[in-house]
Amino acid sequence: MSTxxxxxxxxxxxxxxxxxxxxxxxxxxxxxxxxxxxxYDTVVADCVLxxxxxxxxxxxxxxxxxxxRFATTERALAExxxxxxxxxxxxxxxxxxxxxxxxxxxxxxxxxxxxxxxPSELVGRGDLFFVEPVDRARCAALxxxxxxxATPTRLTFRARNREGDLLWLETSVHPVAxxxxxxxxxxxxxDVTQRENALRELAERQRFSDKMEQTIPHIVYIxxxxxxxxxxxxxxxxxxxGYSPDAVKNMGARLVSDLVHADxxxxxxxHFQRVMAARDGEVHDVEYxxxxxxxxxxxxxxxxxxxxxxxxxxxNRILGIAEDVTERKTMEARLAExxxxxxxxxxxxEVRTRELEIANTKLERLATRDPLTGVANRRAFDRRLDxxxxxxxxxxxxxxxxxxDVDLFKQxxxxxxxxxxxxVLRRLGRLLVETVREExxxxxxxGEEFSVILPSTDRARARATAERIRxxxxxxxxxxxxxxxxxxxxxLPDGGHDRxxxxxxxxxxxxxxxxxxxxxxxxxxxxxxxxx
Length: 532
What we know:
By secondary structure, this protein is an alpha+beta fold. It has helices at 2-39, 42-90, 111-114, 119-122, 133-149, 193-215, 236-241, 245-251, 254-259, 265-276, 326-368, 378-395, 409-416, 418-435, 459-475, 499-515, 526-531; strands at 94-98, 104-107, 153-160, 166-175, 185-191, 219-224, 229-233, 284-291, 297-309, 315-324, 399-406, 441-444, 449-454, 485-492, 521-523. The protein is built from 17 helices and 15 strands. The strands form 3 sheets. Strands 2-1-5-4-3 form a 5-stranded antiparallel beta sheet, with helices on both faces. The protein has a 5-stranded antiparallel beta sheet with strand order 7-6-10-9-8, sandwiched between helices. A 5-stranded mixed beta sheet has the order 12-13-11-14-15, with helices on both faces.
């Protein structure tokens, strides 16, 4: 509407000026014709009259043209005003018209939506009452500059609606110059709160991302597969490897061939293939060595995921984060070396332990075994007898004891010598072990005297075992002459624990067998005790 109004005013001015000039020219010609008629002859007067007639015709034509132009401009102005008012009345943006001093002349109905105020509440006011105080000076300065330069401008500021809620407005200011001075102002304002909040949230996220980039100790990068180069690398790359982000970007695909350790390039290549074939969100990690700027190699643990795909689903970019794990790998290598050394030491210790166990076993054998016969000695016999008697007492069982002595052993030694006697004792020890049960205990308790502990064995079975031993000795072949033995049997019934009585009973029975003629078995009975 302002443009049409300016065109209308300009056209009207030109029309009036042209009409005045034409009218003055017509009057001048008429006066000239009259003077010529008075002072000059008829021919001159006629010429002047003719010119006057022509001027009148020209004036009529000019007036008609100007009137048509004036009518056209007036129609355009009316149509423009209708369109402007329609747009202003139905636009979602708030439209206001202000005098040069800021007084509001017009406010569109959308002021109810944008600010919650009725148009009548805005018309006539010249202050920026709805603008936040912190933004009023800035807004006023920008408006004055737009008036002064007659240049449209745009400003964004905070405002309060009728309910007091804070919102952001974006306003376009269009000054309309009149007669070379600052004229009215046409303002179009829209609510951009959501956009501003989104921009500020984005800025806050960017600030957070920048802070994270500054504080995170790991290398973060984006690799562009189309360009075969890093589209982004954070500053941590320089701290970790000594290369600037720009240097890494310029390396492009050469980074693997130039920096990755030769022994790890295949590992890196296989990892790349896994990432390319991965599904969305699937993360793959790998560890390999990368050459530092100073020439040393550093271990990196890299985790990568497809960051962007093409419309066909082909990966375009890969997002990765790399951590320097050199210290950990060094510690792992040292730990592996220490573990290997510990394993070697442990192996040696196990060998030494086995040797010690064997030595202890030998010592135990020497301490508990009779060196001549290989059966248990007196010390082992005493310990085993105590154990068996304790078990018998707990289980209320019978324990029996055999006392065995080689008949006429001294005469055998005198006749055939001590080596032959020793051989008899060795063979007798083996014979006893072979004859009794596995749970029975055979021991040499004296020179030619042996004892056999029979756990959980009553008197009858003990006598049967003694007879079996006597017969085996009698029937066995011996060097030099036949060898026999006498056996005494004693039992401790009902879980008794009279160790001395059991041993004495077996000895009494043995002596009784000797007195009865040898090569026999005698049980410890009351009549035997009295005979002793």
